[in-house]
Amino acid sequence: MIEQLGMPLGFPEGIPNLQPRDVAITDPGPIVRAAGAGGRYELVVRRWSWPGSGGKPVYNFRSDGREFGSGRCLILTDGFYEFTAPTEPGAKRKNRWLFTDPAGAPLGIAGLVRAVPEGGEAFTMLTCPPGPDVAPYHGRQVAVLPAAKWQAWLDHDAPAAELIGPLPPGTLSVSAATR
C-alpha cells in the first residue's frame, strides 16, 4: 500500500506492519499527516476514535460547514463498510457492504487527529453527504478524497469545502461482505 501512495513519507516510529485486516472502532490504524512545511509527510499508527463528551467514541465527524484549520490527516484503507437493515426474515445482523476502489488502489479518507486525555493521539473519519455509489446504502458517507487532493488536504492548501464532497458515480465498487 505504501508504494501506491506516491507521496514522500517518513516513518518517525518505524515502518509499521500494515497487514490486511479490518480495523474496528478503538483499534489502531494507519494515518498520514503533514510533517512540517515543504511537502513532507509521515505515516503513523493511531487509535481510531477519541472519547466523546458522553463517553461514546467519536469515530465519525460531520464535515459540513467546517474548516478544520489543524489536525488534518489522511486515513489509509483498502475499503470501508456500510450497513443496511437485514433482508432475511428473522435475521438479527445487519447486511454489511464493502466499498472499494474499482482498480484496487488504496482509499484516502479525510480525517482529524488530536491528543486524547489518556495520552497519545486518536483519529476520526470525516463524513459528507453520500455520492450515488453509497446513497442506496447509507444517508452519509466517509469523506473519501481522490488521490489528486490528498496533499492539498494535508497541507491546508484549499478550504475543506473545496476538497470534501460526494464522489461521482462509479468511483467506488460495492459488494456484499461476509463476516
From TrEMBL:
MF GO annotations: single-stranded DNA binding
User: Cross-referenced Gene3D superfamilies, in alphabetical order?
Assistant: SOS response associated peptidase-like
| Matching SUPFAM superfamilies | BB1717-like (SSF143081)
Q: Which InterPro entries match?
A: SRAP (IPR003738), SRAP-like (IPR036590)
| BP term (GO), one | protein-DNA covalent cross-linking repair
- Where are the coiled-coil regions? none
Q: Protein name, please?
A: Mll9711 protein
Q: Which organism is it from?
A: uncultured Sphingomonas sp
